Each structure stands twice: as structure tokens, then as C-alpha cells.
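Table S5 (text form). Sequence records supplied for joint modeling of the two-component complex.
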Amino acid sequence: MTMTLTPSRRAFLASTLGLVVAVSLPLRARAQSGAALAFQPDGSAPTFAPNAFIRVDPDDTVTVIIKHIEMGQGPMTGLATLVAEEMDADWSQMRAESAPADDEKYKNLAFGLQGTGGSTAMANSYTQMRQAGATARALLVQAAADAWGVDPARITVANGVLTDGTNISTFGPLAARAALLTPPEGAPLKDPAQFTLIGTDRPKLDSLAKSNGTAVFTMDLDLPGMETVVIAHPPMMAGTVASFDDTAALSVPGVTAVRQIPQGVAVYATSTHAALSGRRALVVDWDSTAAETRTSAQMMEDFVTLARTEPGLMIEESGDIDTALTGATQVLETEFRFPYLAHAPMEPLDAVIAVTGGQVETWGGYQFPGFDRQAIAGILGLEMNAVKMNVMLAGGSFGRRAQSSAQIGNEIGEIAKAAGRDGAWKLVWTREDDLTGGHYRPMTVHRLRGGIDADGNVVGWHDVIVNQSIMAGGPMAAMMQDGKDPTSYEGAVNMPYALPHLRVNWVQTQSPVSVLWWRSVGHTHTAYATEVFLDQLLVAAGKDPVQGRLDLLKPDMTRDRAVLERVAQMAGWDGQTVKGDKGYGVALHESFGTYAAQIAEVQDVDGFPRVTRVWCAVDCGVAVNPNVIRAQIEGGIGYGLGAVLFNAITLGDGGVVQETNFDTYRMLRISEMPAVEVEIIASTIDPTGIGEPGTPPVGPAIANAWRALTGNAITTLPFQPPVNA
Amino acid sequence: MTTFTVNGTARTVDLPGDTPLLWVLRDELKLTGTKFGCGIAQCGACTVMLDGQTRRACVTPLDTLEGADVRTIEGLDTPEADAVKAAWTAIDVPQCGWCQSGQVVSAAALLYEIPDPTDADIDAAMAGNVCRCAAYVRIRQAIKDAAQSLKA
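The corresponding C-alpha cell record, covering 877 residues in total, follows.
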């Protein structure tokens, strides 16, 4: 998700959960050890927990409490690196644990509450985690100085070892003494020139457990007496239960109960197989009164009509677009059609809840745990502090678990409420639930018009964007100023190019289809529409796609320029967009403060693109762990590539979702993955995000290569239309 | 009642015959390294070894397993599997990690059959294992690294 860090947005987020927004870091020694204490399996006091983020145990392990959910993007390793750097710890002694839900202690400093999204984990934690590490280091040094009777200034720390030249100790033996000290204010941070861990490849902390099957995810949990629950959800968006017959379902061995809940009909059973069998035996009549009953083809027609007829809200304007287009030598017009997309994380949505005498504990891939906590407490009529949240490793998200709607919190809460007794339940979604469950990347139309003058200069640019708002209708609607949702058009505004006559309009549509941020949010379509259309203009003007972009960049867009120049070098760009049987295309796009340029190499195999190589130059500020950055770019490219080539969620007759599993919603496979080469621009600027910015440029780079190779401009996505469309 | 061997130990299970092996492993035998991804043999997250061949546990009913030999990620201790796990960790293949048990099982089986696989061999053997994080660049590299380490 994207985040514009305006005071009003922060204040709103804070007020919804009754928080006080504070930017200072709580660093009082023992009074702050409660959070870390929660992680002691036996409930005993930790040896040394100088703040809510660090625990040092007698065996020398340093455990960093990670406030961001680990869903593959690497915060466990990244945030632990920041702490280890300032503590001068040895990497081998570092561990990471997920923080519990606590919107004050573990708030995302960009949001004002606990949450992960908008590629903010590293950006908002960079200084905070370094300060936490520096404070812990200072306390260990003071403890050593006290123990040895020496001046702390004489003590050095390296690789987890303190020494004054005579005495020597690791962290563990000093932990008990350090725990009694008062943390200093403003422990100094390292000069980046002294970094030994930041900027170097570190092995990830979670790779081993994720390679041998021992990593524990939500679906792997097992509690005494726990039942599994699956829900029969409506097959159309915002359908409801009209009536149901549970006779056959209740006769399935292992099925213990069937209950109607607001989301559908819940089947409770002693095993997953029994629950699924019970759901298959259930007969439900659905009421589609409030549902979206148009087909997606009809919706797309409606969107295109709006793009041609509605002026929309004025989002950005400079110069005089009408005069510019009238006076242009050539005017190009392209309409881009983007389908709904599902996120399809490999671990389908799930959660576990245990209710005991008015106390609730829940486990899940809660990406905004405060929203889910509030939902569960509300449904069960409890105070927030009666609900203990455990944030689990998540088997992917790509935005799906970042729900201000608290979709999973609401379902697991209703399951516990409808059971009407103490007990433990595991909610399991199937792939069918996942793909038909809404919360899609919004269907979108861009209608772009551009003008070129006699000298080949781009003299006019008009983009009309039509889609649903992600923020409208939810708890974030209050942050929309003048009815505008920036996540609908981010990336199509404030472009780096000098376009003197420009207009961007947004037409908001309404539908019962729920929409959500999908890896890189608005950039998923704005990067494609703007970079493909710009390429069309440049080629029509007889310009080289790389040089044409460089010439158009505003003078102060130095980071855009650097990544574009670098990627051109990497790919050996020479202005030829076709060489032999291969086509080459470029795209440049900044998202979440990170700059990425990509060049794709594409072949034509029986009329369909085979993408063989992708080069990417990226500038995300200080590269905390280049290994993780390269992995995120590789994965972001694969994620975007699969969607552009294959993916659409389509509503058929009556609004019924047609793609129900991976047989019709086709995933990119290893045989379709290009070779990827990544170079990271060296930088001393504070780090920005890396989870999302690799995704936006890949689609337009491929489309531009494909157009160069075949002459076909792909303006209706995906490249391979779904069978059912 | 169905009796079969799981990771070298005889297990007798009394469940409906249509219960997929996936849920027998996860719910009954508490072996949760084998993951649920699609339920229709499209993603490979539930890949196990069945009588020496890779098999999607989500479409393998219990009543076909009498006397079978099943090996899951938890019990995969062949030289190929050890090399694959080491290679996976060395270059940090996993991102979210959910599909990786299946990937490791498929990769170990590939190296047992073809000690020095080409890119085409890797594509053929691994195309049934979806990684939504698209860690494919590293999966390919780690298989080659594991093959090298087995030669040494």
C-alpha cells in the first residue's frame, strides 16, 4: 500500500484506535521490558531487555523484536541487521521474533499504528532500530566498565566482544548487570563510513527453517481440542445467504456444527477434510440483491464510456492541454484496460482463535493487527486488552493481508461468537475462497492522449483514469481530501518528465466488488499506461526510447536519470530495439521513494512473448542488505510478469467469479522466469522500500519490447486473455 | 484402517478413505512441513515422495496408500536432499517460504534422477512447483549449486 505521510492521515489513523501519536522512542530500561517479557516461554523476566526491541540472553543470543510482519520481504533480517550494526554484534548471535500486537510500542512511524505496507518497513525503522541498538551497546559498555572498574571510553566492541585491552567479555555475562542500568539518552549512532554489516550481504535469519519444513505458519498451529472451520462464501461479490440446508453437511463424519455468520455459512469439524466435505454437502441459496451482477466485460465497457465522456476530478494540471493538442502535428490516443487481479499468496488466508473464560488469544498473518484486534474485541463484546494477538510468519501477502477491513479478524471473531462456547478454532481458506474472495487490484481504464510537434517534441499529455477507490468506504476514507484517493492514480502524477501541457483526471466508479492494494498499488497500472504510451510517442517522434526519456527528464530528476543510464549500460543498449529474433523495451518508474529502470528482452514464440532476460538498476538509498534487495527485485519482476502475461479475475453471468483456482488463474512457472540482473546504485540517502518497486516497470518494459518486435501494442491486459472472458 | 510407512515409521490411520494424504499428514500425523496451496495438484506445495516418486499429497487419497512408503520434508535425509537444503540456505532461496518444502522435495528428486541437470531438466522437473514470490532465479541456481556440491 502507498502512504502519504500527511499529518492529517497520521492523526486519523491514530484516532481510530485511540492512540497518541508520538515520535519519540520509549527507552526506559526495566519498565519497558514488558513487551520482550511476553516472549519468554516460561514467563520469567528477561535478562536484559533495554527496550521493546532487543533482548540479550545469557547465552549471548541477541533477539530483535520485529514490529513488521515477515511475509517474505525480509524485515526479520533487515531490522536485525540495523540493531547488530549499532551493537557491534556478531551476525551469528542474532535472532528475530515477531512483535505482539501493540499499536503504541510497535507502531509503524509512517502510519502511527502497527502495520506493514507501502514498502515502509526499512524506511521507518532505519533510525529507530539503530537507536535501539546503540542504546543497548552503551549499556553493555557501561556494565563492562563497572564490572572491570575502568573508564567506559577505554572499552571497544567488535563482533559481539567487549574489551578494554585487559579484560574481555561477550554480551551474555554482562546482561544481568546491564539490565540494572538506566539507558542513556541519545546514544550516538555510527558514522555510516564505519558500517560493517549494513551494506553487505547477510544470510537471512529465516532461510533454514523455511528450507527444511520447520518454519511454523498460522495453518500449522495445533491447539488442544481445536476444530477446523471453513466458510461457504458467496460466489458473487457482496452476495448474502438467502437460505441454507445443512442436513447433508451435518451427516458428514467429523462435522460438529454449521452456523450462519455474516460472511456466509461456517462449517465446524474435527479435521480439515471433514470441514471441506461438509462444505461440499451444504446447500446454500444466495441472495444477490446487494451484489455486483454485471460481468466484468460489461463493467469494462462502462469504464471506457466514462473515460470518453466524463471530465472527472482534476488531479494535476499544467499549461494548456487543449491548445497544445489542437496545435500538435501528431496526436496519439490509446485506451488501456486493466483487469481485476487477485493477490493469491501461497498460504491462503487463515487464522486461529482460542477463547477461554472471556480471554481471547489469536494467531494470524495479521498485517495491521490493531484493526483485527478491534474487530475481534467488538464482535465478542470484550475490551481490546482481553484479546492477545500473535503475528505469525505469513506465506506471502502482496497486499492481501493488509486489510483495513479486518476481513480475517471479523471472520475468526464471528466463528468464535457463533460457536457460543469456549474453545479453539482454525479458520482455513481454500484457494477457491482466496481467488473468489474479492479484495482485488481495482479494474482500471486509462485513456491517454498525447501530442507531438513538428520537431518530435512531446507537447501535450492527457490521462483520464477510471477505477474504484481503495480507500473509499473504509476506515481510511476520511483521509481522502476533496474526494480524491491518491492510490487510484499514484504514478500517473508528478511524473519525472518535463511535460509543459499536462492534465490528469480521475473518474471514481462504484461497485460492490471489494478492492485492495496489490503489490505496488496504483503503480500496477499507472507505470504500464504511462511508460507504454510515452514509448509510443517517442517512437512516433522518431526518438530512441532511452535517449528520448533522458532528454525528457526534468533537470533535477537525478536519481531517475542515474538508474536509466545504468540499466542502459547493463543491457548494452545501442538504440536498436530489435536484434535478430529478440525485441528490447525499457521502462522507468519511481514508487515508494525507490527508483527503478528495467530493460526486457523478449522473443516471439508462436505469437506469445517469451521473456528471456530482464535488467534492473535500482536506487533505494542505503542498501542495507543487497542480497535481500536483489531477491525482492527478482521476485517483484516475476510477480509483475505473471500478472501481465496471464492474470485476470473476471466476473461472469450474475457477477460470479470465473477463476476459482490455479488451473484458470495461471501462475508464472520456473520455465517462464527470465534471467534477472540487478545493480544497486550506491547511495548515502536513508533507505526507502524494496518490496514493491521492482514490480511496476516490468510490464511496460515487456510491452515495449513486444511492440518493437511485433508491432502489436498490448493495451488490454493480460497478454493472454482468460478463457472465460 | 490404512497402514503405510511415513518417514520410515509404520503408521496406521483410521480415517475416511477419500481423505487426501495432505490432510492425513497435517491434521492426523502433525507433519505440517507439507503445505496446502491449491488442493488440485496445480501448485506443488504439498509435494512428497511416494514409493520413490514425487506425488501431490492433496490429490492422493488415503485408500490408495496401503503398504506405501511416504517420505515428507521432515524425513527427507538423502544426500541429495541435504545438498538441496544447504544450497537453498546458502543463497537464501526462500522468501515467504510456504512453497519451499515442495520445492525442496522436487529438487532432491530431480538430483537423484539427474545428478547434473540442464536448464531444460530443471524446467521440466520444477514447473509443477509454483513460487508466488517468484524465487525462481535462485531455485535454479541452488539446484545447480547442490549438483556441484554432490559431485565434490
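Note: Residues 353 and 362 of chain A are 4 Å apart (CA to CA).
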